[in-house]
Amino acid sequence: MKTIEKYFPDLTDLQRKQLTELEGLYKFWNEQINVISRKDTENFYERHVLHSMGIAKIITFKDGTSILDIGTGGGFPGIPLAILFPNCQFTLIDSVGKKIKVVNEVAESLGLTNVVGIHGRAESLKEKFDFIVSRAVTAMPAFLYWTRGKFNKKSNNTLPNGILYLKGGDLKEELKPLKQKHKTTPLNKYFNEEFFETKKVVYVAGN
Question: pLDDT tens digits for 37-88?
Fold first, then answer.
């Protein structure tokens, strides 16, 4: 939590409490249902929570913004972002039912009324959203296919509605086919830890 507070010094008491409780909740659920790799549980706040919150260094979502987290797993990046932006609505979807069980249990334990966990595939969702977030669930061209037609036309944030994708490594080849406006921001611009040396946030304008 010290690492989180270093980069996000303006957290409210409630946000600090919710973020502090995350580790215990995920340790408990990880023993029943494996949603986080064992090696990552030792670096939980850095590799899961702070990594998810990297999106908040790119954009401050305005109240009322709707966000879809595709392939959320146990709730990343959706749960930490929902704590940071309590007046935004988050829909977290994953095709693995037991992972969504963890999402809903964690959200309920923290009192997050702005989170809905759905067991299913993104392609089958009929709703539209302002932003779609994710953590490296697939290569970008495939991800774009899943998100087609899922964006609200009207934008209310500093960035036009679109995708905010957390990914690592050299992305030049993967992003080359993209026709949409896009921008890659290295997270080591904001976070000093070695883990973030190759981590990036890719923004792609919605279709």
Answer: 777 778 999 999 999 999 999 999 999 999 999 999 999 999 999 999 999 9
Domain that holds residue 162: 2-205
Structural contact between residues 116 and 59, judged by C-beta atoms closer than 8 angstroms: no
> What is the side-by-side strand order in the sheet with 66-70?
115-119, 89-94, 66-70, 131-135, 162-168, 199-205, 182-186
> Which residue type, as a one-letter code, is found at position 128?
K
Domain count along the chain: 1
Its pTM stands at 0.96
Q: CATH code at 201?
A: 3.40.50.150
- Cβ pair 160, 182 in contact under 8 A: no
- The CA distance from 3 to 60, in Å, is 20
Write out pLDDT tens, residues 131-151: 999 998 888 888 998 999 999
Contact 92, 116 (CB under 8 A): yes
What does the alpha-carbon distance between residue 86 and residue 143 come to, in Å, rounded to a whole number?
Answer: 26
